[in-house]
Amino acid sequence: MSRPARYRYAACALSAAAMAAASLAAHAGTTAGLFVGHEHLNSGSPDWQETSVRMSHELAPRRLFDLAVTQTERFDLRDSQIAAAYVAPLSRQLTASVEANASPTHRVLARNAFGTALQYEFAPAWLIHAGAKTTRYDEVRVNQSLLMLEHYFSSFSWALGWRPARAFHTTAHSGEARASYYYGDRNSVGIILAGGKEAASIGGSVALTSLRSATLVGRHWLSRDWAFNYGIGSSRQGEFYVRNGVSIGVQHTF
What we know:
Blueprint: H1 3-6, H2 16-24, E1 30-41, E2 48-60, E3 63-74, E4 77-89, E5 94-102, E6 112-123, E7 126-136, E8 141-153, E9 156-167, E10 170-183, E11 187-202, E12 205-221, E13 226-237, E14 241-253
Antiparallel strand pairs: 1-2, 1-14, 2-3, 3-4, 4-5, 5-6, 6-7, 7-8, 8-9, 9-10, 10-11, 11-12, 12-13, 13-14
């Protein structure tokens, strides 16, 4: 796989939903995936569970539509959510993405959210991402921005990002660092480190808390049409809890 193909959907860096769309779109066609996750909390709260079914279709080169339905259980509260993302080129160097999600139950998840992002290749293998997202909970609206620099070289890439968020008349700042290794034709493994402050839903209410997390993520193609996705991570959410979790998924391209 050529290096440009690896980052043609990197505009999806704004959210997990859109990043999953990029993961599914390894090549043209329609892809369906099933993803499950389990997280253990050291606070004595019940373990978190999440199951997601996702479909993605590449309409044309660099033009992608993604749809996902998710069932989440946290703090003994169960929610469902539907999410959609669309990626399209504006020029040879510029790519745009939009995403939206809504939860009809929204006991612990957000009521709804909408975000948009731009990716610009300002030099060969050098990308800059900028985006904004607004998330509405019952009692507060959280506005988040993104600024990220990304570079690809040989079989590797790295990225540094800044994510300011505004809630409760207060601005919180967090940052992240990513590093990835690409092997074989379409396989990859990477690590994501994040820290700072963010707005998080804690047991049905939203609070600004500190965050420190480390996650290992990867995708390995078992055949031309089947791939295995995985993630292992640990997050400390202020003084509330430490989450340790694992996620796995399978995807098939038609």
